[in-house]
Amino acid sequence: MPDKPVLDPKTAKILPWVVAIAFFMQMLDSTILNTALPAMAHDLGTNPLRMQSVIISYMLTVALVIPASGWLADKFGIKQIFLFAIALFTLGSLACALSPSLNIIVGCRILQGIGGALMVPVGRLVVLRAYPREQLVTVLSFITIPGLVGPLIGPTLGGFLVQYASWHWIFLINIPVGIIGILATLKYMPYLTRGGDLHPFDTVGFLLFGTFMLTITLGLQGIGELHLAYAPMVLMMVFGLVCLVGYIMYSRWHPMPLFSPDLFKVRNFSVGILGNLFARLGNGAMPFLTPLLLQIGMGYSPMKAGMTMIPMTIGAVIAKSAATRLVNRFGYRLILTVNTLLLGAMIALFSTISKEMPFWLMLVIFTIFGIINSTQFTAMNTVTLVDLSEEQASSGNSLLSVIMQLSMSMGVAIAAAILSEFTDGIPLTSAHDVITAFAGTYLCLGFLAAISTVIFIHITPDSGKVPKKQDSKPLPVAPED
């Protein structure tokens, strides 16, 4: 590896802001859209309960492209790929705002997803290549702040724009931010090189693993949103599982596989990946379902629905500060087994929400859910990475990011399929019946989340525990949710 570039003081101060802009755009976009779905559906003449493809297309694209992001940055240059990512995300946002139909928006969301999939990992790579080791923790902590700010303001900002302007502005708001990011990248980002030989990209592995993700998610979406026949959709998902088995067998003899099979020799990594995959099937759909419940079932305005979601994020921020102390005292296994059961119970508790429930009680439920959900994410992500060696960390982190996006897209697809069954034949004007349908969906999702407890039982005993006389051990850096 070549020596890291010597940054002049001005560039060293501004470069983290450039990367933070990209992080902010990506994290804001992941939450701002949920509150706007009913308004978009009304304008496009579509059932608001059939809008999940707008969410899934973005998440699935991010999951598909992330494995190639590092190789593309090394092949074509970090600055060039980062600039391309911001430009593509910005153009995709403009195209979404101008789209006249749901199908065209879905296509434009795929463009956004490609840009989003490149912005975050390549942005993190910029920091790793440009700053000395002693500054990394400070800079990485700074650029991840948007990961908390974006979800905090996303639902409320989305509701405000929809109510007082139009849903188009949830995409148009990215344009000036993207332009600032492009100009700042051109002026302040240095040309960073990898050094050494570039290994060939694992194209076959990428196609096998990508086909697995694509067919599983599209099969679930076909059953839920498109109401296609069960038999061909099930066959599609079976084909996806065959591709996954094929990838596993192929990766065992390939010298440089997309994801090394040696990762799964680490017990906590294997448990963490499986736990992330299955636990998120339950809670990954909550940001999609809850704004729909509040607007369609409860009759809230977009602005009120967005503001009602704020306690979830406040709870998540509160939990972030306590996660390290909890893990250090009780260990990953106890925290995740207990917390996963609590998570399933809290999701199921959403089934009690109705027009008769006091508003303050609903906010309490949202806050507690935010605390438990954030603790779950933090502990799941970090236990996955905690025992990896330095050589394994990059590949393991990349696979974790892929699984996070895949499981959330599958969670949305599963939730939409369940909700579709409960709402079949129910007019959206029947608020009581719609709320009842959401209640049944929440109960199913709570069960899905709770049964993943059996996975976390297999975490290495006492993993994460720190003796009382020692200082608290910080959790390893994990991908943002």
TrEMBL record:
It is found in: Cell membrane. Gene3D superfamilies: MFS general substrate transporter like domains, Multidrug resistance protein D. The chain crosses the membrane at residues 14-33, 53-74, 81-104, 110-127, 139-161, 167-189, 201-223, 229-250, 305-323, 330-353, 359-386, 398-419, 439-459. Residues 15-464 form the Major facilitator superfamily (MFS) profile domain. It holds the Pfam family MFS_1. It is a multi-pass membrane protein. The keyword Membrane applies. PROSITE patterns: MFS (PS50850). One of its GO terms (cellular component) is plasma membrane. GO terms for molecular function: transmembrane transporter activity. CDD domains: MFS_LmrB_MDR_like. SUPFAM superfamilies: MFS general substrate transporter. InterPro entries: EmrB-like, MFS, MFS_dom, MFS_trans_sf. Keywords: Cell membrane, Membrane, Transmembrane, Transmembrane helix, Transport. This is Drug resistance MFS transporter, drug:H+ antiporter-2 family. The lineage of its organism: Bacteria, Pseudomonadati, Pseudomonadota, Betaproteobacteria, Burkholderiales.
